Amino acid sequence: MTSLDDIVTQLERQRDAIDNALEALRGISAQSSGDRTGAERSGKRRGPNAEGRHRQIEAMRRYWAAKKAGKKTALAKKKTGLTVAGRRKLSENMHKRWAAKRKAAAA
């Protein structure tokens, strides 16, 4: 009869494990369906209010109106690079700085 008792004990352990798994799945299902408390929802970010949306809409209207009119906006400005003279000047200044640093290190 011990083998029968062992089988019953093993089945009861499996039943407990299945019950625990079902409880966990029910908890996950409740959370994903929106059955959350107010404390859990408080960290949720919200979008802009009506006034903020209105400001965004108006800004985009102005942006696209300017774009259609052919005007350059601040976003459409092309970045300019260094000129040859400007690059040469920066190079000379860096050479002077490093020479001064080497001189100070040697002293």
What is shown here, in short?
With 107 residues, the protein is mainly α. 73% of the residues lie in helices and 0% in strands.
Question: How does this model look, in words?
Answer:
The chain has 107 residues and is mainly α. It has a domain of 32 residues. The protein is built from four helices and no strands. The N and C termini lie far apart (96 Å). The model has no long low-confidence stretch (mean pLDDT 83).
Structural features:
107 residues; 0% strand
Poorly predicted regions: none
- Please bin the fraction of helical residues: over 70%
Largest sheet: none
**End-to-end distance:** 96 Å
Beta-strand portion reads under 5%
Structural class: mainly alpha
Helix and strand layout, with pairings?
Blueprint: H1 2-32, H2 38-41, H3 50-69, H4 84-106
